[in-house]
Each structure stands twice: as C-alpha cells, then as structure tokens.
Design goal:
Strand content: 15-25%
Number of strands: 23
Structural class: alpha+beta
Radius of gyration: 23 Å
Number of helices: 15
C-alpha cells in the first residue's frame, strides 16, 4: 500500500471538496442553497480510528461519530442505553446485556453478541485502554443478542468504563480482514462512516443512512486538522469552519463580539498538569517535586495566559468528578519554601532540565521557565507536536511535559487508576512513572467497592497521598470555549468532550 494513512473510497469530485452544498427550489421557483456538510476543526491530527489503539481527543471525537458503545454517557453525564437496550446486574460479579436487534455495521453486517465478545476480549489486551476492562474475567454469549460479562470481583466502574470510547464495539469480520490497517479502515455502527482520510489535512465522514438511531442532520461531516489556535478562530470568522471545540482563551472576545458567531464557555472534567518523570533524577526525589510545585505561580498562569478560563488545581481530580476532594489545600506559590526544599534535596544551586511543550502550551511553558529560574532551576524548552509528545512521554523519554487528563467517565477510577497506579506506567496514562504501594492498594480497593460513600472515602485518601507525593505538578482545571456559526442548531457541549454531531443542522 503506497500510503496507509490515505484512504479514499469516494468519487474524485468529493476528493477536492471541503464544503458540499445541495440545491433546492423555493415556491417561487428560485434556487436556494442548503448546506449539507458540517466542518469541525480539530487542534491535533487523529492518531488512529481503532478505538483500542488511541486515547487522544481528536481520535475520540471521530470515534464518537463512527462507533457506538454498549452504554452511553449523555450530555448531562447520565448512563443511558447504547447498543445494549437494557442490562441487569444479576449478582456482584455478573452483568447481563441485551442487545438491540437489527443494528447494522457500516459493512452491512448485523451486530451480534459475538462482536461484543470479540471486542472486549481484544480490548483487554490493549496497552492503551485495556485498564477499562481489566477486571472482566469472562465474556459469554447466549444466542445472538445476549452478552454475559463476569468480573473477577465486584467492579464498581464497569458501566462507566463501557461508555468510554475505548470500549466502542467493533465488527469482528472487519477487524480481522483489515489486520494492522484497521486503524485506517474503521467499521462501526455509528451515524457516520469514513470515506476519506488525508493525513495532516482532513477526515471526511458520510452519513450512514441505516443508523439505528436515525439519520444524521447533515450528509457529510469533515474533521479538519488545524493545529494553530489563531487559524481555528480565523476559520470561524471566514465561515470555513462551522464548529471549533478548541478555542484558546486569548480568542474568547473575538468570538463573543462577532455577530455571526456564538460561543459557549463551560467547566470540564479535565486536569492540566506537568508530568514529572519520577523515574529520572532529580525528579525521583519527592522534595524536588514538591519544590517545583511551590515554585510555580498557578494564579499567574490562569490570569495572564488563560484569561481567567480555568481554576487553580488543589488536587488531581476536577471538581465535576465524583469523589473530588475539596479539602486538599494543594501547593501555594512560595518561592522561599521551594528553595528550602531544593536545598534539603541537595540541589542548593538548582539544576538543569528540559520542559516539553506543544503549540497550545508554549506560552505556559515560557511562564514556567521564568518562574523556575527564580529558584535556580534552568529550564530548556522544546516544542513537540502533540501526538509525538504523547508517544515519547509514553516511553519515558521526558524530564517534564505539560499535559493533562480528562476523566471522561466522571468516575474517579478513570481519573486516578490509569494515571497513578504503578501498573499503568507509560502509554496507558501514568506518564509521570509514579508508584506508591499504598496508592495502588487504595485504587485497587476503590474499583471493587460498591458502596458509594466508601468509594468517596477511598478516593479522597488516594488524592491526599498523590498530592503529598507531588507525583506531578498540579496546575489548573481548564474551562472549555466552543465557537460556532450562529446558524448551528442541535449541538450540545459534552463535559467529557464526547461531542456528538449527528443532531446538528443549519437553520
């Protein structure tokens, strides 16, 4: 194959078209133009459309359009039926899911229980999203439309994890036929199907008219890769982009003041941090990690760079997440305290290190560089494309990297287990390569504790230990700014960034 990243199964006319229009006739016989293509800007390129091999925002956004899950999270974060029309918790370790009948995959195959079994067993082997279903012991089928999941022990976050995009249901036949190329040849049951993918430019999806949830409001959905924040805003202003869910705070007023546009600003389930590589010196020293936390003025970052769109992080779970510990004080800005801790750690004169940033975090990186210099830490900034940064931090090549995590399930297991459990070091999420046996015990216990109040106690205690250890630098809880054309209807911002575009229309 000449280029695995370029997929084209549509006509040449569509290859060069980014916005498609359909003519219709008014009562007076005059032709008007009805837009039937929705263009959505992505800040970074989609890595893979195999939901078990990618966990970044752009891949998830496309995945939500192409796939469905057994269980879904609505915009108000309630668990609702997806491909499973209902389910039953038969006992502490047994779940029964009854599938919808007549659901079609994009290749014409009907969804069967065997596809669900294949998907979950394949997912367990994934280094990226296997943790979501690691507590599943067996997956059994009873006929074509009943799936029986048995867990090794009670597993409280099971339903939440099954609503994650990493648990999207795959077609066994399509996966096996595509082999290693499946990430570029996805087959789902979702409202849109992939028709074209031009690496570094755009992804074109077409409405799947046999979608069990009803036809999408637009015929075509284009995800346009626009890395530069200013270009996403300009694209909205010129009308080339219909929706951008990645508007930077600096452009907030431009969107608000434009009469042709509308804007939504919402809190998120996200957490912005600096991944400190605990496996490298001097970051293997807790005193050094604490010193860095004290040396960074988070309020200055929020006010000067984020224009107030964010809240200072006191812990490692966002306030919207179940189990958030509001009682943790966190690290206040204290230069003297930072210097004292560095001296105790044997770094009276500081040290040199590298800080990796992306285009969206470069300004924050410059502020941090200046602040750390005040305590003797000389930071060299290196800029990486986001996907490269994720790949390399997964391998542990970094000193420090400005990143973050969104607890898309709104369950603390997803916010803490992949990011701080010692078994998850690397691409699964623990890019700080942090490990604490007591934290591991608490996170393991939280997974199998069914009582809600007990779970809250467990996760609050885990947060206290993680913050005390300064596993990373707790920066802020980001807000989200979404800009869109004023004629957009039917789009609702999803707290977990699981935005759905099938209900969108143009008025």
């Amino acid at each position: 194959m000449a280029n695995k990243k370029i997929i084209s199964v549509i006509t040449s006319a569509l290859l060069f078209t980014s916005i498609l229009l359909t003519a219709c006739t008014t009562k007076e016989g005059q032709k008007t133009v009805q837009k039937d293509t929705l263009v959505v800007a992505n800040a970074m390129e989609t890595k893979s459309l195999d939901p078990q091999n990618a966990n970044d925002g752009s891949s998830t956004r496309a995945g939500m359009a192409i796939y469905d899950r057994l269980v879904e999270r609505s915009e108000d974060m309630k668990l609702v039926p997806g491909l499973a029309e209902n389910w039953e918790n038969k006992d502490a370790n047994t779940w029964i899911f009854n599938l919808r009948k007549g659901v079609k995959f994009h290749n014409g195959e009907e969804l069967k229980a065997s596809d669900v079994k294949f998907t979950l067993e394949r997912q367990k082997k994934s280094s990226r999203v296997g943790f979501l279903v690691s507590s599943i012991d067996t997956v059994e089928t009873d006929g074509d439309y009943k799936v029986i999941i048995k867990t090794k022990e009670p597993f409280a976050p099971l339903l939440s994890n099954l609503a994650h995009n990493g648990s999207a249901i795959l077609n066994e036949k399509a996966v096996k036929a595509a082999g290693e190329d499946y990430g570029q040849k996805p087959v789902g049951t979702g409202p849109f199907k992939l028709t074209q993918w031009v690496a570094g430019d755009k992804m074109v999806l077409e409405r799947f008219d046999e979608y069990f949830g009803g036809k999408a409001g637009v015929k075509n959905l284009i995800f346009k890769t626009v890395p530069e924040a200013s270009s996403r805003t300009i694209g909205l202003e010129t009308g080339e982009i219909d929706i951008s869910v990645d508007i930077e705070p600096v452009d907030k007023e431009k969107i608000k003041s434009n009469s042709k546009l509308k804007m939504e600003q919402t809190p998120t389930l996200g957490y912005a941090n600096i991944w400190l590589n605990n496996a490298k010196k001097p970051f293997d020293n807790k005193l050094v990690r604490q010193a860095i936390n004290y040396a960074i003025n988070k309020d200055a970052i929020i006010n000067s760079v984020l224009y107030g769109v964010g809240e200072k992080a006191n812990t490692v779970l966002a306030p919207l997440v179940f189990g958030y510990n509001k009682d943790i004080k966190g690290y206040e800005y204290n230069v003297q305290k930072a210097k004292e801790l560095l001296a105790q750690a044997g770094y009276t004169n500081g040290f040199e290190c590298k800080l990796w940033v992306s285009s969206s975090t470069s300004q924050i990186g410059e502020v941090i560089q200046a602040q750390l210099k005040e305590v003797g830490i000389n930071v060299k900034i290196e800029s990486l494309e986001t996907s490269a940064g994720l790949e390399r931090t997964g391998k542990g090549e970094h000193d420090m990297y400005i990143g973050g995590w969104t607890t898309v399930t709104a369950d603390p297991d997803y916010g803490l287990y992949p990011t701080y459990h010692s078994s998850q070091k690397g691409p699964a999420g623990n890019r700080s390569f942090y490990g604490n046996a007591e934290v591991d015990k608490l996170l393991d216990l939280g997974r199998k504790t069914i009582d809600e109040q007990e779970r809250i106690k467990i996760y609050k205690e885990a947060q206290k230990l993680i913050v005390e250890d300064a596993a990373d630098v707790q920066l802020y809880f980001p807000g989200r700014i979404v800009g869109m054309q004023k004629n957009i209807e039917g789009f609702t911002v999803h707290p977990a960034s699981y935005h759905r575009f099938n209900k969108v229309t143009f008025k």
